[in-house]
């Protein structure tokens, strides 16, 4: 197979996308595990395929490169179907439009992130520091706990202390509403 000028240009563009330009002249066998995974993502996207399969594309990567590869995959999703396997629920949440969860070789659930969190998730955890000088029975502390219970359908967790209020918040709470309620209480 003979490479054309266009093939070389696309290959270098993909290498730049996954931040491997500095290592482009090195043998792939000398790459670290994270660099190999980034190279695999670049190779999978060469030729503009309609369907791309990625198996654990960011496992073992440092957080900065993982986030960057997520951005590359997210951009690639615009033109094609991306099938991605992962053990990371964070990765599935960020990249998945439709998520399938398997256990013991069987499909257990299928749906959007919001649907799965609503059906199976516990919601979010909200933690507010009241400062070290705050008394656990202060007006602010009681008002905040009452507001969280009444307006946010939130219940206290075991981590609540006199200077630290922590609660579970249902999935349906809009973040803006959450901050609005807290600012009115304090």
Give me the secondary-structure topology.
Blueprint lengths: L4 H13 L15 H13 L5 E5 L7 H14 L4 E5 L3 H7 L3 E5 L2 E6 L1 H8 L3 E6 L9 H13 L3 E2 L7 E6 L5 H11 L1
Parallel strand pairs: 1-2
Antiparallel strand pairs: 3-4, 5-7, 6-7
Task: Write a structural description.
There is one protein chain. Helix 1 packs across helix 2 and helix 2 packs parallel to helix 3 (63-76). This protein is an alpha+beta fold and 186 residues long. It has 2 domains: 5-85, Rossmann fold; 124-185. Helices cover 42% and strands 19% of the residues. Strand 3 (99-103) and strand 4 form a beta hairpin. The longest helix is centred in the middle third of the chain and has 14 residues, at 63-76.
Assign an overall shape: elongated
Name the structural class.
alpha+beta
Looking at CATH, the homologous superfamily of the largest domain is: P-loop containing nucleotide triphosphate hydrolases
CATH class of the largest domain: Alpha Beta
User: In percent, how helical is the residue content?
Assistant: 40-55%
Q: Roughly what fraction of the amino acids lie in strands?
A: 15-25%
The CATH architecture of the largest domain can be named as 3-Layer(aba) Sandwich
Average pLDDT level: 80
* Estimated radius of gyration: 23 Å
Q: Characterize the main sheet.
A: 3 strands, antiparallel
* Tally of helical segments: 7
User: What is the number of E strands?
Assistant: 7
**What is the CATH topology descriptor of the largest domain?**
Rossmann fold
Report how far apart the termini are.
69 Å
Order of helices and strands: HHEHEHEEHEHEEH
């Amino acid at each position: 197979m003979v490479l054309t000028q266009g093939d070389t240009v696309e290959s270098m563009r993909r290498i730049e996308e996954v931040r491997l330009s500095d290592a482009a002249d090195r043998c792939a066998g000398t790459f670290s595990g994270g660099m190999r995974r980034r190279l695999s993502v670049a190779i999978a996207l060469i030729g503009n395929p309609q369907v791309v399969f990625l198996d654990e594309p960011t496992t073992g990567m440092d957080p900065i490169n993982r986030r960057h590869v997520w951005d590359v995959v997210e951009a690639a999703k615009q033109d094609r179907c991306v099938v991605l396997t992962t053990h990371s629920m964070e990765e599935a949440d960020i990249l998945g439009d439709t998520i399938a969860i398997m256990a013991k070789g069987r499909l257990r659930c299928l749906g959007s992130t919001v649907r799965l969190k609503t059906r199976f998730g516990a919601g979010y955890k909200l933690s507010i520091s009241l400062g070290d000088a705050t008394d656990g029975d202060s007006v602010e502390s009681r008002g905040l706990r009452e507001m969280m219970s009444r307006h946010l359908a939130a219940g206290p967790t075991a981590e609540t202390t006199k200077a630290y209020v922590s609660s579970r918040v249902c999935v349906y709470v809009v973040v803006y509403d959450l901050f609005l309620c807290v600012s009115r209480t304090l």
